[in-house]
Amino acid sequence: MTATAASTAATPFDPVRPLMGVEEEYFVVDPRTREVAPRAGLVVGRAAGELGDRVGTEITQFQVEAKTPPCAGPAELERELRRMRAVVAAAARAEGLAVVASGTPVLGPAVPPPITEDPRYDLGIDNYRALHDEQAICAGHVHVHLPDRERALLVCNHLRPWLPALIALMANSPFWTGRDTGYAGWRILSWSKWPVAGPPPYLESLAEFEALVAGLTASGALVDPATMFWDARPSLRLPTVEVRVTDVPASAAESVLLALVVRALVTVSLRRVEAGDPGPRPPEELLRVAYWRAARDGLDGHGADPYTGRQVPAAEVVEGLLEHIRHALTDSGDLETVLRGWAWLRAAGSGAARQRAALTAHGSFEGVVDDLVARFPG
Fold this sequence. Notes:
Number of helices: 15
Family: Belongs to the glutamate--cysteine ligase type 2 family. YbdK subfamily.
InterPro entries: GCL_type2/YbdK_subfam, GCS2, Gln_synth/guanido_kin_cat_dom, YbdK
Shape: globular
Strand content: 5-15%
Low-confidence stretches: none
CATH class: Alpha Beta
Structural class: alpha+beta
Number of domains: 1
Pfam families: GCS2 (PF04107)
Mean pLDDT: 95
Helix content: 40-55%
Oligomer: single chain
Enzyme class: ligase
Order of helices and strands: HEHEEHEHEHHHEHEEEHHEEHHHHH
EC number: 6.3.2.2
Largest sheet: 7 strands, antiparallel
């Protein structure tokens, strides 16, 4: 068990301010060519001197993954995120490299990506084959402490309709290796090809969940339980629910906003579970369409109501989410922080909008990468 897992497991559950933690994935880039660089192992090796096992490699040699310890409040979380990002950035500079927070690679020959050497990844390549060709993608994951796995599973039923709102809120992947995709969150589309990905299925019990995992394993869709890539799931190694639907946030401040929103959403959902509410069941196809609209438009266009399919301005979708969790934010003392962060994001634009603004301002994708490097620790 890691130190993070041990500290979460040993901490009494707080139903108002449960512990939260963030995992982020970053791209390593060559500051001269601005292309993604397959040298993540060098960056991780240096950063581990300060971050220990809270930094590691990912499936491709372009990616670094880093994680915070469990945190109780926004100030603590932001401090940990900024330190984590600063350490990774300094390690990259020491190797003549840089790091950026973007859901997809802006520049570089990323298809197929160089895969990190690991027996587990070898099994995955044998099983999933060309699905790995577009696996150079970076996400942000939020963990929220929950008292047991059964409740974590039932909470996921309540999270499902709100996952598109989180996609729109943190959309940060408009480009793919020198091309504007026309989407705000192209990473979502790349990820959706996998056999066990996207919104989690509606499940009524831990026994049903375990039977489904057994069936998915028997079918070959899972190499192991860790390849159950649903966007919300009970963590496999921590006493948490893990929400893993968004692009990596563009800044540490946006990661804090995301974590507070997710924590409040989990808190509201847990209260409903404990009151006997089984959770809503939007039509599967409309939920899928809501995902697509959120990935396409981000915060700048329209989302889709996952119950009716009706188009709704994306900002109203997020406002609806904030209204849904307002009581939990008030109880935890996080309401002002979240409202301030949301007001800033609406004024500054999403990560995707800022990447496109950088392209307009600099006139090149190289300028977009330079902008991402400069913004990274913030």
